[in-house]
Amino acid sequence: MSVMTTVTDEELISLTHAILRRYGIDFTCYESTSLKRRIVRALNVLKLDSTHQLWIRLLKDRDFIYPFIDEVAVGLTSMFRDPILWQTLRREALQAIPAKDQLNIWHAGCSTGEEVYSMGIVLQETGIISKAKAVASDMSEAAIKIAQEGAYHPLKIAEYEKNYATYNPTGIFKRYYSVQTQGGKMQAELIRHVDFRFHNLITDPIKEQYDIIFCRNVMIYFDQAAKIKLLDQFYQHLNPGGLFIIGFYDALVPMISKSRYKYLNLDAKIFQKI
Ligand SMILES: C[S@@+](CC[C@H](N)C(=O)[O-])C[C@H]1O[C@@H](n2cnc3c(N)ncnc32)[C@H](O)[C@@H]1O
Fold first, then answer.
1. What CATH architecture does domain 83-273 belong to?
2. How confident is the model at residue 194 (pLDDT cuts 50, 70, 90)?
3. Which residues of 129-269 form beta strands (DSSP E)?
4. Cα end-to-end distance, the chain, whole Å
5. Would you say residue 3 has pLDDT above 70?
6. Helix spans in the chain (H)
7. What confidence score (pLDDT) does residue 229 get?
8. Do 40 and 16 touch, CB atoms closer than 8 A?
9. Could you tell which of 116, 139, 227 is best to mutate to test the pocket of ligand 1, judged by most ligand atoms within 8 Å of the CB?
10. pLDDT score recorded for residue 4
């Protein structure tokens, strides 16, 4: 089978609009260059020759959309990547949030859960995990399943252990997981306080209010109009004094208004709602 290497603008437009009409899944506001690249990768993995073949497959098998979404949407993640973020949360940012009995946290676009468990460990280390209630959402069902399971391959655990040591050289990462045949399973307390759910940031409504919203390395795929809309929604759903945290490569800083947010720590990409 020949391997497809390009997707044209016309193919992209017709495919994304057809998927939106048939499934209500909106890829039309994703940034086109990276979406094309991801579709090419998905076609290769799913062993399809062209977007036309993909569409035929989707017409014959309605459920084929799920492996397609997983290939297109799922991205890289890691525990304790960007140590400055986790250090800043532990040392100063969490203390800057107005005191409350319950701390509501949302990981929007949580992928396979590594960001959620990094935060869980920081919450334990600051002694506030018992009052934390987190929602972790993603548009990939497969990613959510892995996140909820909280079990990672030994090679990944080894990588996360190294990242953790950069974040906290005196801490002991082994305390946070148990060794199983298939790898490391995160400690029950780190899983228990999290509600893992399917949620599409483009099409699904946001209902709750939060004290911390993480949306890291997700909006990078969205076009300008989608970014503006989502940033506005995050602002509406964040409590005053709450933290908004973005990814290091999101290129969103100029869009985060200083009349809405204090730049609490720009290096860590943490913003506090005024
Ligand atoms: C690169 S991962 C980021 C994971 C994590 N936030 C981090 O930075 O480590 C991007 C995630 O965004 C999710 N995603 C992309 N578009 C989405 C959408 N419209 N709604 C919800 N999640 C989305 C993908 O499924 C993927 O799991």
1. 3-Layer(aba) Sandwich (3.40)
2. very high
3. 132-138, 151-152, 177-180, 183-186, 194-198, 210-215, 238-246, 261-265
4. 56
5. no
6. 9-23, 32-45, 51-60, 65-73, 83-88, 114-125, 141-149, 154-167, 188-192, 224-236
7. 96
8. no
9. 139
10. 55
pLDDT band at 177 (very low <50, low <70, confident <90, very high): very high
Q: Could you tell which of 138, 144, 163, 222 is best to mutate to test the pocket of ligand 1, judged by most ligand atoms within 8 Å of the CB?
A: 138
Q: Give the domain ranges of the chain.
A: 9-73, 83-273
Our CA angle for 201, 86, 258, nearest 5°, is: 60
pLDDT band for position 144 (cuts 50, 70, 90): very high
| pLDDT tens digits, 52-95 | 999 999 999 988 998 898 888 766 789 998 999 999 999 999 99
Kindly report the CATH class assigned to 9-73.
Answer: mainly alpha
Q: Whose CA is nearest to atom 2 of ligand 1?
A: 75
Residue ranges lining ligand 1, Cβ < 6 Å: 73-77, 109-111, 114-115, 138-140, 143, 200-202, 216-218, 221, 247
CA of 146 to the centre of ligand 1 (A): 14
